[in-house]
Write a structure and sequence with these properties.
The structure holds 2 protein chains of 2 kinds. Chain A is 83% helix and 0% strand. Chain A is mainly alpha-helical. Chain A has a domain at 1-106. By secondary structure, chain B is mostly helical. Chain B contains 7 helices and no strands. In chain B, helix 1 (2-16) packs antiparallel against helix 2 (25-35) and helix 6 runs antiparallel to helix 7 (169-185). Classes of the chains: A mainly alpha, B mainly alpha. The interface between A and B is large, with 103 and 111 residues.
Amino acid sequence: MKKDRHFYWRLFSSTFTLSAFTFGGGYVIVPLMQKRFVKELKWIEEDEMLDLVAIGQSAPGPIAINTSILVGYRMAGIPGALLTVTGTVLPPLIVITIISYFYIAFRDNHLVKALFKGMQAGVAAVIVDVVIEMAARIIRNRRLLAIIVMALSFIAAVLLKINIVIILLFCGILGAYTTLRSKHDARSSPDSGKDESCAEGSGTGGSAGKKEGSD
Amino acid sequence: MIYLQLFWSFFLVGLFSFGGGYASLPLIQEQVLKINSWLTPAEFMDILTISQMTPGPIAINASTFVGTKVAGLPGAVIATAGCVTPSCIIVLTLAVLYYRFKGLDMVQGIIKGLRPAVVALIASAGYSILLTVLFDSDDYTFRLSDLDFIAAGLFAVSLFLLRKFKLNPIYAMLAAGIVGMVIYGFLPSF
């Protein structure tokens, strides 16, 4: 693939338009990116794209931002990543900047205030709905440790008012520790071959994609 | 140095919001309400409402909004840059590792450990948002006599429609807004 000005423009404009038309944030943009880069432009293989999405979800930060950084890096290295992250950030940056000026001027209008007050009740309902959904998933998995961690974290945040970062760091370390232990246990059991063959499989898919990308 | 403070606060939001979307909510709340008091709880609610209607992740919307309010356009750019910098560094490091080693068991393990905590923290943010909406309270405490019956009704109906009929969140919010505008709009005391 020729990496001329036209290529970089398409990379930038793709992420810009995807970001501009993704409302509500989060997971919506991921399938759209898949459609654009895998199906329409045929720049990235389906399997490799799935790996990139998984990496994007396992890193901190907004998923839309993470995935676009990965796509940019995959297509054109660090400059590509900078280009796509700029393309993704610009639409909300522009829209919110305009709204925040206009909002400060109109906030004190009686009807606007009433509209916002009503919408906030709706937003609260949306968030409670999301929380119920997520908590139910954790409880349904029936992993006792996860349920305990969830309950204790809530108590720590609401009642004890412990800093969120400290709670997250603690739980991250706990997760790393349990993985290390289960890996250690798996090594001494006959099941251990299974995991490795899985990792091998996704590995070859990824390296094939990389080779294609480097020419 | 307000710019440095903005950058750092949203750097922390970006760095610790695992799981995307609502996961950044409790962190933003902590940074802009508790640690820095850049927004009032009512303004924080407004930014959530605006976020639902505009493109882009909540964290980016919040950084731009807070940045503009605290230090104008440069503030918006700096806060937003702060929010995406950890993503850039971490994601690029992971990408390099992915193309070199593929297996990311450790990362998966950390994520697995974080997931229930993230749900709990979103719940705690949701709890205080609910108190803001229902009792106009900016802390985790409230008085039952302060209950806003209209907001409580709108909340209950919206939640019912969302749970029962899987209503699109944007419609739920807009409907609540319009009904709210009609009811509150005719209240002289509001």
